[in-house]
Amino acid sequence: MKRTTTFAIALAGAIAVSAAAFAAGGEKPADWNVGGGEQDEALNLTPDLENGLEVYEVCAACHLPEGWGSRDGTFPQIAGQHPKVTIKQLADIRALNRDNPTMYPFALEREIGGAQSIADVAAYIQTLKMNPEPGLGAGDDLEHGAQLYKDNCVRCHGENGEGDNDKFYPRIQGQHYEYLLRQYVWIKEGKRRNANPEMVEQIKFFTDKDTTAVLDYVSRLKPPAEDTAPPGWLNPDFE
Q1: What is the assigned CATH class of domain 7-132?
Q2: CATH fold match for the domains 7-132 and 142-227
Q3: What pLDDT is stored for residue 25 in this prediction?
């Protein structure tokens, strides 16, 4: 299996589709987790990891074969993510409940398949070992960040950022700082329309200092050793 090298060509061909879709449907209101549609269908299917790998070839163009994304936060780490979280986000993007013009054309059914493929790729992504060297913040206010995390984030995301698959709370430990920052700002400003309203309420009074401190702290939370790849690891499925 070859490493993916065609992202630029595919993206250029998809821009018109993505722009048209978001012009037509980008203002559609979203709810946090009402379920229904492809989300419920995918959640009730038995995943096929072999097909999940085939589907993931499309994802690897941006998220890399290892699922580590980019340290500058352009693309998130998705390796090790809870399958219910991945299923929800893919279903929301396809239904235009979450705005992601870059990802949207690659998430369409004609590109990766239907609900079964969503279930399959979500299961495959969970098997990927996580990045041991994510992008970090400045590291100059970690004590403040730790206290903010303890007071505001633990209830949903867990003591170590492990999230909760059954409750659709994402795993955020070891996520790239710049990606966390961008999503956090979008959630706070209402741009991330499928965000949990409890989180929106929780962070609405955070200052810029609070924001950078807590997200820097989160980016440094370590996944368990058994879920973490060694530095320089390459996904053997793409050799």
Answers
A1: mainly alpha
A2: yes
A3: 46
Architecture of the 142-227 domain: Orthogonal Bundle (1.10)
Question: In Å, how far are 149, 150, 191 from 143, measured between CA atoms?
Answer: 10, 11, 29
List the chain domain ranges.
7-132, 142-227
Distances (CA, A) of 57 to 1, 52, 78, 167, 221: 9, 9, 14, 28, 28
Contact criterion met (CB below 8 Å) for 221 and 146: no
Helix axes 115-127, 49-63, angle to 10 degrees: 70
- Bridge-partner residues for 164, per DSSP? 169
**pTM of structure:** 0.89
Report the C-alpha gap between 160 and 153 in whole angstroms.
10
pLDDT, tens digit, 9 for 90 and up, residues 83-140: 999 999 999 999 999 999 999 999 999 999 999 999 999 999 999 999 999 999 999 9
Q: Can you name the residues that pair with 130 across neighbouring β-strands?
A: 228
